[in-house]
Amino acid sequence: MLFVQPLPVPCPARLIPVATGAGAFYDAYQKAIADSAVFVAIECEGNRWTVKADTLTAGPRHVVSDVVNEEVRAAMTRLVERGEVDWGAYMGPIYFMMHGVRPEERARELAAALHAALYGDLEPLTRSVPPTV
């Protein structure tokens, strides 16, 4: 396994796991299932990063409200429109993925903000992806 403790909520960006490669992804995903936690990780794709999250790993009692899902979709749409992530982002409501993020620190920040949002805390997402004024 990649880590011993479950990821804290909210999870600091520095603790977001890197799940590059099938083995690392499998380990991180299985750990989330074992912890009944939302899966979150980043994956290196050359000089770009992918942010992934999945709420199925948290089990049937974990519910993400419609309000949170709408805010997550809106934030991801802004990221696409601003060119921070590639078109074709998966915007939930269960599986989330953003390709083409640069640099790694930004991918970690977005992953941590998405993770917090999927637990109902929208503040980190609003801070990381402020609404267009």
Structural summary, described in words:
This protein has 133 residues and is an alpha+beta fold. The protein has four helices and four strands. The relative contact order is 0.20. The mean pLDDT is 94.
How are the SSEs placed, and which strands pair?
Blueprint: H1 22-34, E1 39-45, E2 48-54, H2 66-81, E3 90-91, E4 95-101, H3 104-118, H4 123-128
- The tally of helices reads 4
Distance between the termini: 43 Å
User: Helical content, roughly?
Assistant: 25-40%
Which spans have pLDDT < 50 for at least 5 consecutive residues? Answer: none
H-E string: HEEHEEHH
- Determine the strand fraction and express it as a percent band: 15-25%
Q: What value does the average pLDDT take?
A: 94
Q: Report the C-alpha radius of gyration, rounded.
A: 14 Å
Give a quick summary of the entry:
The protein is α+β, with helices and mostly antiparallel strands and 133 residues long. The protein contains 4 helices and 4 strands.
Give structural attributes.
133 residues; alpha+beta; four-stranded antiparallel sheet; 4 helices; globular
